[in-house]
Design a protein that fits this description.
Chain lengths: 326, 251
Amino acid sequence: MGEIELMESYWMKKENNNVIEANVLTKKFGNVTAVNQVTFSVDDGEIFGFLGPNGAGKTTTIRMLTGLLAPDSGEAFIDGINIQENPIKAKMKMGIIPEMGNIYSDLTAKQNVILAGKFYGIPRRELEKRANSLLEQFGLYDRKDYLVRTFSKGMKQRVNIASAIVHNPEILFLDEPTPGLDVKSQRLIRDIINQMNQKGTTIFLTTHNIEEANQLCGRVAIINKGEIVVIDRPERLRRTFETTQSVEISFDKSIDDSLIGKSDLVNRSERLGDKCKLYTNNPDKLVKYLAKFAQDQDLTIVSIEICRASLEDAFVKFTESKSCGN
Amino acid sequence: MGIRDINIQFFRGVVVTTEKNIRIYYTKAPVMIFGLLFPLFMFLSFYLGRKVDLYFFFPGLLAMSLFFTASSVGPLITPWEKQAGTYERLLSFPVSINTIILGDILAGMIFGIIVNIIVLVIGLLFFNYSINILFLFFGILLASFCFSSLGVLLASPSASSPSHIMMFSSLIRFPLIFISGIFIPLGNLQGIARGLSYLSPITYLVDIFNFGFKGESDISLIVDFIALFMFSVIFIFLSNWFHKRNLMKGL
């Protein structure tokens, strides 16, 4: 490919403002197709969520996008750069927090961040300043000279993220960044993601946590069995299943769910701890019915709430319908 | 980012990977055991209770020491990183497989050279050799690169357990010691034994050391240097191929 064609290709990618682009990516492991013709793009400055059940192909996709895995067919572009053709150049623009990626437990928190910075050629003095500032920001400054092997999982993940962003990347890939972390660490990481995004960093977030995606992402893609099922804004996805409404009710005493479930108003019911979730097409009538039911049975209503369809409901529906289709 | 920047980035990656390896892996138990204690015990089992002319055998023992030390770090790094979960993190940095391989080789090479120089100085204190410093210098340099490359090649099977790789590497390294001209001088090897000795890269270093210390050589010195260079190229080529092939295994 000549230099002019390369330049044209680059500017075509830049013009449409996509900083991450997956074009018909396919990857097989033996006879199993892990990712099948996945195509999507992420705009500059966006927080893009990539959701899917276990084994759906999320990590394989992220590994192809970050140049760790070569696709069998298709291409991936990072800010207009073909990751397969120019992996180093593309990686200089990225920060990556792999799902399975740990930091070096035989190094201190600060040594880990500095090691990462050295790979990007940040000058020593500047690197020292950035490492201290990041560790301060992540609440680890007092522990900066402790070996990472003495840290909790949440602290390790904070060092992991600090190491991935020490070079101020334009694009940040996070593969399942919060599972298993305490609430404080989860909040801190979400805050950092938001702060980085406000400063202009594009975020590609892979997660199981639907609520996390709902809070953070401007758009989400749902992948199931290696194929993209849907890409849209969380709120629009949720509204697709607006008919799936429910009423959550809790009484002062345990009751037999089947007693309520008998009503024609209830499509199906499920127990959530001391609460009962009743799916219905008519929440207004169901609430009135439940009030009468409580009075008849001499029960006190502890809490009652009408729930609209959540992103989680949409996720379950989309992944279920795909499974049925198969 | 032009070609020059990519080259700078490549060399930077090699240096940082080497620095990381030195900082983390030099003090690991398998490196101490296989790199320092093993050659020492091999030497003691060879020397104690026997009438051995150490002046005559020292060049061979020095070659054995370099072989063990330079090839002790390489087999450990990749399996250790895969087991600890740091390998994927390392790959996420702006580095290629070649960068990582060269960084691992350089770490083993530096370890081998440092230990070898200490053993060399001790040997020179005890024996009155009129050494050829130039041949010794280039011999140590090239052979440490070659042996360290072999160490990195031995790390390339997909096993993520360092103990499995250490066992596998012993299975390869010990026969290479025994078929080389360390314990039986090259001049005394005949027939198949002589032919087999050419398959071990240590043989060529022993010959270079024999010349460097005593001015004697059984093989041509040019052949020795070319052979060590060719072994290095083959080891690096195979390392690259196997590491790429097994990249995702064990992650």
